[in-house]
Amino acid sequence: MQLVDGQYQIGGINLLDICKEFDTPLYVYDCDKITDQYKSLLSAFKDVKVKINYACKALTNINILKLMNQLGAGLDTVSIQEVELGLKAGFSPDKIIYTPNCVSFEEIQMAVDYGVIVNIDNIETLEQFGHEYGSSYPVCIRINPHILGGGNVKISTGHIDSKFGISIHQMRHVERIVANDKMNINGLHMHTGSDILDVDIFLRGAEILLQTASDYFPNLEFIDFGSGFKVKYRDNDIATDVESLGETLSKRFNKFCKDYGKDLEIMFEPGKFLVSESGYLLVHTNVIKQTTATVFAGVDSGQNHLIRPMMYDAYHKITNISNPEGKKRIYTVVGYICETDTFGWDRRINEVKEGDILAIHNAGAYGFSMSSNYNSRYRPAEVMIYKGKALLIRRRETMADLIATQVEQEL
Ligand SMILES: *Cc1c(COP(=O)(O)O)cnc(C)c1O
Q: Which tens digit of pLDDT belongs to each residue from 65-101?
């Protein structure tokens, strides 16, 4: 969002007007920002055959999926329902990669029936897959290289006792299974969940994957380096230097392809990087509450709508868009849920009055998609700013939605 003539805008549209039209709490997504992020990745990897698969668990509104499809992205999915949403949004099956963890084998069979790319992260499942499909259906293997980068332990997946991936130390076993059923391994994958802050550290993990590729798998078509792209949450945060990563990794990858004897595709599956900064949760200030120690701004939202601050201690910047020129004061911004649902402690925010609209930043990824109806509250509506228009892409819920799946018995 930009401050233009004393108004916060996205794509020329005043955010306060959007709140008047669609009410609060409201998720707003800036499609231009998503497009820019996608293009910056493409351009950083212009020297290799790159494919960007949007990790859609970050934000699954079908209109966002359609936008990604329009941009030319593929789709990274972690459940059969996400696969189905992707197909509904118009993705062809060969552009969808299915990377489940601990799902039933029946669900993997469904993915095969849909014809999507299947990524397996467990030796037993790989063996079962081999017995069932032999060489008839290609499969990708998710490897855990056991590298630990930066980032929150709750979102890191690369450690030795992580439930994700097949350990790099089990490749001989994998080799036997693959040989036994003459399996067609078409891809190698890693997603460590760590933030890429240091390109060299990331390359160490990548090196392990490339080494494994040339040691064990001669028929690959792609190598998928997962995500780990970090975005800014605070003004002075360091984000992943995509340009430098692209330059260094492309060079290394091209050399690898030469040695391997085949031009493989390089894939990534960013979620946050594509959508986090595009999104804002707009909330209405219900009360200002002064206690002996703190001034609280209580808003019409809470952990039921955006749980990242409470679950991951994530920092989300907060702006008072109703008072762009106001004097800064210190507030603790809290929700209306009967839990300690604090969006931000001791924040310097332009003076907040009852009725002011606050914008919570970085709400595009893992915002709506992790929301709930806790406290029997309705989830927010969603709007996207697309080609200078504010489009409603999810209407506000009603009591009928809340009880739609309940079965009322005669008691
Ligand atoms: C969640 C997830 C991603 C996306 O992670 P971000 O941090 O949002 O970029 C990518 N790949 C897999 C397999 C995931 O589970």
A: 999 999 999 999 999 999 999 999 999 999 999 999 9
Which ranges constitute the DSSP H helices of 89-190? 105-114, 123-133, 171-180
292: buried, middle or exposed (CB in 10 Å: 19+, 13-18, 0-12)?
exposed
Residue with tokens 């699954």: 60
Please give the Cα distance from 221 to 402 (Å, whole number).
46
Give the C-alpha separation, 1 to 37, whole Å.
15
From 269, 273, 274, mutation site for ligand 1 pocket: most ligand atoms within 8 A of C-beta: 269
| Contact yes or no for 205/191 (Cβ under 8 A) | no
Indicate the pTM of the whole model: 0.95
- C-alpha of residue 314 to centroid of ligand 1, in Å: 16
Q: Are 226 and 259 in contact (CB under 8 A)?
A: no
For residue 115, the 8-state DSSP code is: T
Distance of CA 67 to the CA centre of its chain: 15
Residues 6+ apart with CB under 8 A from 282: 15, 18, 19, 24, 25, 26, 27, 28, 321, 357, 358, 359, 360
Answer yes or no: is the C-beta of 358 below 6 A from any ligand 1 atom.
no
Residue nearest to atom 4 of ligand 1 (CA): 271
User: Which pLDDT tens digit goes with each residue over 295-323?
Assistant: 999 999 999 999 999 999 999 999 999 99
Q: What is the DSSP string of 53-89?
A: EEEGGG---HHHHHHHHHHT-EEEESSHHHHHHHHHT
Rounded CA-CA distance 286/71 in Å is 39
Query: Quick check: bond before 218 cis, omega within 30?
Result: no
